[in-house]
Amino acid sequence: MTAPVTLSRLNHRFGNYHALRDIDLRIEAGEYVTLLGPSGCGKTTLLSVLGGFIQPDEGRVLIGDTDMARVQPSRRPTTTVFQDYALFPHMSLRDNVGFGLRMAGQGRRARHARAEEMLDLVGLADAAGKRPHALSGGQRQRVALARALAVDPEVLLLDEPLGALDLKLRRSMQDELKQIQRRIGTTFVHVTHDQEEAMAIADRIVVMHQGRIEDEGAPQRIYRQPKSLFAASFMGEMNRIAVTGTGFGVTTPFGPLEIEAPQGDLTLCLRPEAIGAGGDFALGTATVRDAAFFGTHCRAHLVPDAAPDLVLVAHLPPAELPAPGAKLSLAVDRADLTVFPA
């Protein structure tokens, strides 16, 4: 069973600090949504409001058609998975996973059967009798996930659940989380500050900044065509170039650019991987200041001849590492450029 979530005009303050500002958000039933942003942007506060741990100063929280304003966390159709696992060290995995069902009054046989079903879902069917100390970090996180799912929530809340794992294990768990969510169809709301993690798992990303929603949409759209300068800069590495809107296009250090843009001082944004030898807008020649091999690409700092005070970061093909001082001819596609007020 799962349900949509509707947040309307949410506001919350901690003293003089305005943590959530006029949040309006609809999360569809069965959707995997990530709340993404830097520390202090309001994403964890928003998750806490969903879980009932914080009562907002203003606004409504609907899960399905039910207003959750005065519903206690234990009575909401939500469960939360935390970064620190919060497993009971003296209990078996079976009893850890079945703990919520035990608190709900379910009999031992039924809760053990459900716990074993959930452990099987997360790939730990053979470890039901073990205790948490015998597991790796990734396995403990799977147990925490199984425990949250055992009570059959309508909405599962995940508060940076992979933050304590190393990079390789975190990527493996990202794949597993998405596969599990697709299999069971529960609505997932996942808080993270990791842009790659958000893009790897989410159906939709909600970018937050200073208590507001800056942008929301599919990962590819958010990355390639962000709606604000903050979203553009936060979603991975970005080159920012000061340009001027003329009303008919944009004046750039590399020549006039025919692109829809307002008049005045603007910031032109382009991703490092968009810079190459081909494209319909030429940047001219540039000198390689330095370059490093990153496996999937070579990351280079380039100084354009047309703008010697500007340094561009480019992700070049990995087959050949350019030497410092080498000259490269650069271009980009207009479709890969975005422009925002300065």
TrEMBL record:
Keywords: ATP-binding, Nucleotide-binding, Transport. Coiled coil: none annotated. GO terms for biological process: putrescine transport. One of its GO terms (cellular component) is ATP-binding cassette (ABC) transporter complex. InterPro entries: AAA+_ATPase (IPR003593), ABC_SmlMolc_Importer (IPR050093), ABC_transporter-like_ATP-bd (IPR003439), ABC_transporter-like_CS (IPR017871), Mo/tungstate-bd_C_term_dom (IPR008995), P-loop_NTPase (IPR027417), Transp-assoc_OB_typ2 (IPR013611). It comes from the Bacteria. Pfam families: ABC_tran, TOBE_2. This is Vitamin B12 import ATP-binding protein BtuD. It comes from Pseudooceanicola algae. The lineage of its organism: Bacteria, Pseudomonadati, Pseudomonadota, Alphaproteobacteria, Rhodobacterales.
